TrEMBL record:
It is found in: Cell membrane. Belongs to the binding-protein-dependent transport system permease family. This is Oligopeptide transport system permease protein. PROSITE patterns: ABC_TM1. One of its GO terms (cellular component) is plasma membrane. It comes from Spirochaeta isovalerica. The chain crosses the membrane at residues 12-30, 102-124, 136-156, 176-195, 281-302. The lineage of its organism: Bacteria, Pseudomonadati, Spirochaetota, Spirochaetia, Spirochaetales. It is a multi-pass membrane protein.
Length: 320
């Protein structure tokens, strides 16, 4: 297990480094106007622009710029925003926005897993009956209709019926409900339909038929055999979904005017804020890779067959 963990850590680090280097070099192909605010670019002469770019180190070779960036990251210096929040430290920007995305992400993930697993169990337990049909209708609706449409309708109808504000207010907890619920709808459908599928597949396996022939109750079989084995494939994706949800949702945060990280990357790209873009890409890359890594570890701990396979390889190696 230890060799496996070390190997996956090294692979994860290599993936993050490759992604950051690729984005870093691509950003250097962008026009240098992205290093200026609009007013500064208009008011500066060509000589002044060249001197400013030189002071930023943009004219240095790409290798030196990349080395300087990674050195700053290891020291905790993420640089400063250029056009989105001129001259404001990126650490300050993230410190203001991350808590919002973190809170909404964790809350929506809890609801998604709880209700999604419950929906999947209900659909599998009453397969081809009305609970299964209702659950399937919900999943099809959520996945077939563009999310912007039903999220906007939910915002209009619910706020109109409940007399709630249409946007997020930090000092009014009632305005936190709709963003969390809206952010959970897709996750509920995803967990529900996949858990149902895995449970139905497990029910058709030979060991389940053998358990029934031994006289075990359906409730015992569903809890200790079907559900336990059906959850294993989903465990791998839980950390990925959690970390990506925490990173924020562009649509939800835009609709409810939540000052999180959801639209920050897109806005930074539009404004050509290269410093902010490369830091955000680093964060998203780390979140995605970390989610896959943690998912693999959970699979190894949850599924005994992975550990047994590793032990078998070790024994074969020792024999040789």
């Amino acid at each position: 297990m230890s060799r496996y963990i070390v190997k996956r850590i090294l692979q994860s680090l290599l993936t993050v480094v490759i992604v950051v280097i690729a984005v870093f070099l691509l950003l250097r192909l962008m026009p240098t106007s992205g290093y200026f605010t609009r007013e500064d670019y208009i008011n500066m002469t060509e000589e002044m622009r060249s001197a400013y770019l030189k002071s930023l180190g943009v004219t240095d070779p790409a290798f030196i710029q990349l080395q300087r960036f990674f050195t700053g990251v290891f020291k905790g210096d993420l640089g400063r925003s250029i056009t989105v929040y001129p001259k404001l430290p990126i650490r300050t920007i993230l410190a203001e926005k991350v808590p919002y995305s973190l809170w909404f992400g964790l809350a929506s993930m809890f609801i998604s897993v709880t209700l999604g697993f419950g929906l999947g169990i209900l659909m599998a337990r009453f397969k081809d009956r009305w609970p299964d049909h209702l659950g399937t209708a919900y999943v099809v609706t959520v996945r077939a209709i563009p999310s912007l449409i039903y999220l906007f309708l939910i915002q209009i109808w619910v706020t109109g019926i409940m007399r709630w504000p249409m946007v997020f207010y930090e000092d009014r907890p009632v305005t936190w409900i709709l963003p969390v619920v809206s952010l959970s709808l897709t996750g509920i459908a995803w967990y529900g339909i996949w858990l149902r599928r895995f449970m139905v597949d497990e029910e058709n396996r030979d060991y389940i038929k053998f358990a029934r022939s031994k006289g075990l109750s359906q409730k015992y079989i569903m809890r200790h055999h079907v559900l336990r084995n059906a959850v294993v494939p989903l465990v791998q994706y839980l950390p990925v979904q959690l970390l990506l949800t925490i990173a924020g949702s562009l649509i939800i945060e835009s609709i409810y005017s939540i000052p999180g990280m959801g639209g920050l990357l897109v806005y930074a790209i539009k404004q050509q804020d290269n410093n902010l873009v490369q830091v955000l890409v680093l964060i998203y890359a780390v979140l995605g890779v970390a989610g896959v890594f943690v998912g693999d570890l959970l699979m190894a701990f949850v599924d005994p067959r992975i550990r047994l396979a590793e032990k078998k390889k070790k024994k074969e190696a020792l024999r040789v």
